[in-house]
Design a protein that fits this description.
The complex is a heterodimer. Chain A is mostly helical. Chain A has helices at 25-47, 89-92, 94-101, 104-113, 144-164, 178-195, 198-206, 215-228, 231-254; strands at residues 52-53, 56-57. Chain A has a two-stranded antiparallel sheet. Chain B is α+β, with helices and mostly antiparallel strands. In chain B, the strands form two sheets. Chain B has a five-stranded mixed sheet. In chain B, strands 6-7 form a two-stranded antiparallel ribbon. Classes of the chains: A mainly alpha, B alpha+beta.
Chain lengths: 263, 250
């Protein structure tokens, strides 16, 4: 007996879908953007160079915690000794990677575009068996809230990086460059992405049964619910901007761009 | 303003069937269900179609129009070009009875498996008091008209018949979320959602939300919050420890 859409009793329609619109476009674009980001960020993590140019630090390397970090790039000291031979990016990149991999919105996106489960609504998936997130490894998606908490810590660090970027190349305060603005937008978008997260919404008030007994948390939940409606947009913009921020810092570091100062 | 539209309608039963072509008049302001009725009236009087209110409120005329799960009565003909061929097929997740009519009894069975609201033991019906903000979330889910388009489009059962035994589908997981968020419900719905109704099968691809004719944010407001509530009691050791300590100290 056939399974799936040709299971016994169902309408005998052999096509995987009868959709006539460009249903393949969205998963294709999603795949292209995500795979491009993965390739770029992997290259940058392994490059282990051109991530700091006074006073700008790439978000891929912030905080830079290893003794191998270039001078001036370690905002929070260098607690990781010389035994760590890899790029210092690997010490922290698991946090944004884990946060985005377990994000409810990205799950939707990559389940559709990478795993084709399903590729689009009303389009048959190619897999003969499906267990979803009921067993390993996908049951680990339930750790999303822990990556959210760790991601918040990184957001504070990146905000601190923005403050440090109000200096010039001689470490003198009171200056604003294009790089400062790039870092500022980056930190702001990452805050918006984090605060619009479904786990954040749940932690702030979603888990309550009685909003009326917790008016402050209800208010917070109301605010984060408004942000949550735009979570997909923040997910995409923050992803693209964090890559651009790193690209900007790399370009300034290599001399490809000049970091112009507004004052 | 009218034109002759090209339609393909799936005709058949549980054993056999095929798409049958029709050319039929379409007038301004009509919806797909009007055209199906005209085919019934002019060319195929034995065409089976389930419908009732023709106002998007009874949830009877669920079908697939050009492969997308929709209410036929809410799908306007002016969303197509006159030269388009419009294909109408029955919902593909459920057994077909005849033509566009499917057997949706799976949904009624799953509905029965969700325990009803159970209020506090010390309050009698009529003594329940609650604030509007406490029930506002659940009220969104009460807009459901039970058209079962969300159930039909959910790939967990659409593409995997075997999962019907263990997965209740978005409509009834939303019902569980509605009750779990209810300020006076006392039943443990979280373990039930995961262990008995297969919430873990949901991979939140949001197709249920996309097809909902009532525009209920099923995924964002019911399924994901329910998944987070399940994490609280099953997968979050810190939350588990905190609630255990709180229980013992109280």
């Amino acid at each position: 007996m056939k399974n799936g859409m040709l299971s016994a009793g169902r309408a005998r329609i052999s096509e995987r879908t009868l959709r006539t619109d460009k249903w393949w476009l969205q998963p294709f674009v999603t795949f292209a953007v995500l795979i491009s980001f993965v390739i770029y960020s992997t290259f940058r993590a392994f490059e282990n160079a051109n991530y700091y140019t006074t006073p700008l630090l790439s978000p891929f390397y912030s905080p830079c915690l290893a003794v191998s970090c270039v001078p001036g790039s370690s905002d929070l000291g260098q607690p990781i000794g010389s035994w760590f031979m890899l790029s210092p990016a690997f010490l922290i990149l698991f946090i944004p990677l884990g946060f985005r991999m377990t994000c409810y919105y990205y799950r939707r996106s990559y389940y559709r575009s990478f795993w084709l489960s399903p590729p689009a609504c009303g389009v048959g998936e190619p897999h003969s068996k499906y267990t979803g997130e009921t067993r390993a490894p996908l049951i680990l998606q339930n750790a999303h809230r822990y990556f959210f908490y760790l991601g918040l810590l990184l957001n504070f660090v990146l905000t601190y990086d923005v403050i440090l970027a109000f200096r010039n190349e001689n470490y003198e305060w009171g200056h604003l460059s294009v790089g400062t603005l790039v870092l500022f937008v980056n930190a702001s978008l990452l805050w918006l992405y984090s605060l619009s997260c479904h786990s954040c919404r749940h932690a702030l008030g979603g888990r309550l049964k009685h909003f009326s007994k917790n008016p402050v948390r209800y208010k917070l939940w109301t605010w984060t619910s408004k942000l949550n409606a735009k979570h997909p947009m923040y997910a995409w913009i923050s992803l693209l901007w964090v890559a651009f921020t790193d690209f900007y810092v790399r370009s300034v570091s290599t001399g490809f761009f000049t970091n112009f100062y507004i004052f | 303003m009218g034109y002759r539209a090209k339609f393909r309608v799936w005709r058949g039963n549980a054993n056999t069937g095929a798409l049958t072509s029709y050319e039929v008049d379409v007038n301004e302001g009509e919806v797909v269900l009007d055209v199906i009725h005209r085919i019934q009236a002019t060319e195929a009087p034995d065409l089976a179609v389930r419908w009732n209110c023709k106002a998007g409120k009874c949830g009877s005329c669920s079908a697939e129009v050009n492969g997308i799960p929709k209410l036929m009565c809410m799908t306007r003909m002016n969303t197509f070009n006159p030269e388009d061929v419009v294909t109408v097929s029955p919902m593909r997740a459920f057994p077909v009875i005849r033509d566009l009519v499917t057997d949706v009894s799976y949904n009624y069975k799953k509905a029965q498996e969700v325990p009803v609201f159970e209020g506090p033991k010390d309050l009698a019906p009529g003594e329940y008091r609650m604030q509007q903000e406490d029930v506002a979330r659940s009220q969104e889910f009460r807009k459901c008209i039970e058209c079962f388009l969300c159930q039909n489009t959910c790939h967990v059962i659409r593409d995997h018949e075997e999962n019907k035994k263990v997965f209740s589908g978005p409509r009834f997981l939303m019902r569980i979320a509605e009750l779990d968020m209810h300020p006076l419900d006392t039943t443990d719905r979280k373990h039930m959602a995961q262990d008995d109704h297969g919430l873990g099968y949901c991979n939140i691809t949001k197709c249920c939300t996309e097809v909902c004719p009532e525009h209920i944010k099923i995924t964002d407001n019911a399924l994901i919050p329910m998944k987070e509530r399940v994490v609280d009691v099953k997968y979050d050791p810190v939350r588990w420890l905190g609630s255990t300590i709180k229980r013992r100290t109280s």
